[in-house]
Amino acid sequence: MCKEIKRLTLLSKCTHLSKTDRDAVTWAIQQIAPPIVEPEKGFDGFDFSSWPELPKKSVFDEYDKVRKKKHSTIMTQAWINTVSHHLIQLAGANISVNQALEVATASGWRVIKFDWVKNQLQGDSETGGDDEITNQNIKDKIKSGNVTHITQIPKDVKDDLVSALRFDRIKNEKFRAALINIGFSGD
User: Fold this and answer.
1) Are 22 and 10 contacting, i.e. CB atoms less than 8 angstroms apart?
2) Which of 6, 77, 140, 150 could disulfide-link 183, Cβ–Cβ 3.0 to 4.6 Å?
3) pTM of the model
4) What is d(CA 104, CA 127) in angstroms, rounded to the nearest whole number?
5) What's the pLDDT band for 136 if we cut at 50, 70, 90?
6) Which ranges in 19-56 belong to alpha helices (H)?
7) DSSP H helix total and E strand total for the chain
8) Rounded Cα distance, 55 and 53, in Å
């Protein structure tokens, strides 16, 4: 088939053929090997065809800034393809790509995972200040003043935070100070 296309391509360039004949040869080439249609490229040349929808540029750019602040690798097509199956699952749960990116931006995540986004959105939709305190929402609870004493934090979450403080894994100074204010030891 490749030889036929080459032969027809050469034939379509012959000057002794009429325009109608050249058009017929070009049509025959397209029937044998239809032209390759490149997928629509999004922001900065990325192919978002594996995503359920194209995100808003402003939302995507904000998320990209968060990834860069976290010293993550630069945004690549491989990352776009990798996260697509999580976004497809989220779309099945009626969560848009923009919502997922906004949650990931607000939470400071370098990656997007179905369970993380779904749990975060379910946590936000619950009412009252007695929401379950987890590792994922502890920063927000302490910063918002919903947690005022160390005794309000479940033991497993408390142990993780004590360990993080002890081994200097908490880099946010305001959060570190808030932890110390509610009774954690900075030692």
Assistant:
1) no
2) 150
3) 0.47
4) 21
5) low
6) 19-32
7) 9, 0
8) 6
**SS3 assignment, position 34:** coil
Where are the chain's structural domains? Answer: 2-32, 43-125, 138-181
Cα–Cα dist 131/40, whole Å: 43
Tokens of 17: 């053929």
Q: Which residues pair with 15 in a beta bridge?
A: none
Q: How far apart are CA 84 and CA 78, in angstroms?
A: 10
* Amino acid at the residue 14: C
Q: What is the pLDDT of residues 145-180, one digit of tens each?
A: 777 777 777 777 788 788 888 877 777 788 888 888
Distance CA(187)–CA(184), nearest Å, equals 9
Residue with tokens 């012959």: 14
Q: Which amino acid is at 102?
A: E
pLDDT tens for 20-76 read: 877 777 777 677 665 555 555 667 778 888 899 988 989 998 888 888 887 766 778
Residue 145's CB is within 10 A of a number of other CB atoms, namely 10
Instruction: Return the amino acid letter for 143.
Output: K
C-beta separation of 66 from 102 below 8 A: no
Rounded CA-CA distance 104/95 in Å is 13
d(CA 138, CA 160): 11
